[in-house]
Amino acid sequence: MDSFLNLLNSTSRLNREDLITIKEIILATYGKEPVDISAKKFVEDQIWYQPLKNFSLETLSLEQQEIIKEFERKIKK
């Protein structure tokens, strides 16, 4: 996962909206229903998408939480 985060840090072509959409798609893989319209349309067509009614960020592994935090840091810039 470090290589993914390094790639994210080195990618300047992604704008804020792109980062939000990607973050929402990643969260959807963990069971969170996307708020972002583009992400929602994408994940609803995926066979792996299973929204969890009681999704909580606290239930994510430390690695998963770090990925989301890194997206949030990039989005705030």
SSE inventory with pairings:
Elements: H1 2-10, H2 16-30, H3 37-44, H4 62-76
Helix pairs in contact: 2-3, 2-4
Structure description:
- With 77 residues, the protein is mainly alpha-helical.
- It has a single domain (2-76), classed as Up-down Bundle (Methane Monooxygenase Hydroxylase, Chain G, domain 1), CATH 1.20.58.
- Helix content is 61%, strand content 0%.
- It contains four helices and no strands.
- It has helices spanning 2-10, 16-30, 37-44, 62-76.
- The longest helix is centred in the first third of the chain and has 15 residues, at 16-30.
- It starts with a helix and ends with a helix.
- 14% of the residues are buried.
- The model has no long low-confidence stretch (mean pLDDT 86).
